[in-house]
C-alpha cells in the first residue's frame, strides 16, 4: 500500500493510465480484426477502406508508445500485403 502522498497519487495515475491504454489496445485489436474479416470476405474495395482506417489507429497507438513502432510497422505491412494479394 502506498504510504506517501506522492505514492498514492502515482497509484491513482497508474489506474487511469492503465484504463486508457487498455481501451486503446482494444481499439487496435478491433481495427485489425475488421481488416482480416474484410480480407476473408474477399471484398478488396472494403478491405482497402478498412485498412486505411486501421493504419491510422495503428499509428496513433504506436505514437503513444502503447505498442512498439516496429510492431506497428509489422502489422501495417502484413495487412497491406494481404489486401494487395486479393484478386
Question: Which key phrases capture this entry?
Answer:
87 residues, mainly alpha, Methane Monooxygenase Hydroxylase, Chain G, domain 1, elongated, ribonucleoprotein, Ribosomal_bS20, structural constituent of ribosome, RNA-binding, small ribosomal subunit rRNA binding
Can you walk me through this structure?
Binds directly to 16S ribosomal RNA. Belongs to the bacterial ribosomal protein bS20 family. One of its GO terms (biological process) is translation. GO terms for molecular function: small ribosomal subunit rRNA binding; structural constituent of ribosome. Keywords: Ribonucleoprotein, Ribosomal protein, RNA-binding, rRNA-binding. With 87 residues, the protein is mainly alpha-helical. It has a single domain, classed as Ribosomal protein S20 (Methane Monooxygenase Hydroxylase, Chain G, domain 1), CATH 1.20.58. The protein contains three helices and no strands. The protein has helices at residues 5-41, 44-63, 69-84. Helix 1 packs antiparallel against helix 2, helix 1 runs parallel beside helix 3 and helix 2 runs antiparallel to helix 3 (69-84). It is elongated. The mean pLDDT is 96.
Task: Detail the topology: elements first, then pairings.
Layout: H1 5-41, H2 44-63, H3 69-84
Helix pairs in contact: 1-2, 1-3, 2-3
Biased composition (Basic residues): 7-22
GO molecular function, one term: structural constituent of ribosome
Region (Disordered): 1-27
Amino acid at each position: 500500500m502506498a504510504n506517501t502522498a506522492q505514492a498514492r497519487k502515482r497509484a491513482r495515475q497508474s489506474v487511469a493510465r492503465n484504463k486508457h491504454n487498455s481501451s486503446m489496445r482494444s481499439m487496435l485489436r478491433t481495427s485489425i480484426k475488421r481488416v482480416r474479416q474484410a480480407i476473408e470476405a474477399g471484398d478488396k474495395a472494403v478491405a482497402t477502406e478498412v485498412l486505411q482506417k486501421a493504419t491510422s489507429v495503428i499509428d496513433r497507438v504506436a505514437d503513444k508508445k502503447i505498442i512498439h513502432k516496429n510492431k506497428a510497422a509489422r502489422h501495417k505491412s502484413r495487412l497491406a500485403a494481404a489486401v494487395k494479394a486479393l484478386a
